[in-house]
Amino acid sequence: MPPTARQQRTACRVIAQAICVGTQERKVIGYTAATARSGQPYISIRVGQVLIYIEDRAALASFIDAFSQAHRMADRVFPLVDEQRQSEARRQAIERHRDGG
């Protein structure tokens, strides 16, 4: 059965998980209908190895809201006194996992 018009407007074509530690490279590029290969405008957002294409304002608002919520809870979740030590421990754990150990 083909998706309804509402389902098409609220599509997210991938589900993924990314573990991010430390400062990440960032790149944001906006493509108008005239400059996009597809002819449809979008914003490309890359943070580290995560790439997201935002195709309308509603999708952008969803990400802004989610990251705003995360920002408001950051001090409670990541106390500043522990941040450096914990970030280093996470980085080392990720490296061990990648190396198979």
Describe the structure.
0% of the residues are buried. This protein has helices at residues 5-9, 57-77, 80-98, and strands at residues 26-31, 42-47, 50-54. With 101 residues, the chain is an alpha+beta fold. A hairpin with a 2-residue loop joins strand 2 and strand 3 (50-54). The longest helix is centred in the middle third of the chain and has 21 residues, at 57-77. It has a domain at 23-55. The model is unreliable at 1-7 (pLDDT under 50). The termini are far apart.
Number of DSSP-assigned strands: 3
**Separation of the first and last Cα atoms:** 46 Å
**Major beta sheet, strand line-up:** 1-2-3
Put simply, the count of helices is 3
Whole-number mean pLDDT: 86
Q: What are the segments in which pLDDT stays under 50 over at least 5 consecutive residues?
A: 1-7
Radius of gyration using CA atoms only: 18 Å
Structural class by secondary-structure content: alpha+beta
**Element-level helix/strand string:** HEEEHH
Form type: elongated
The largest sheet, given as strand count, sense and whether it forms a barrel, is: 3 strands, antiparallel
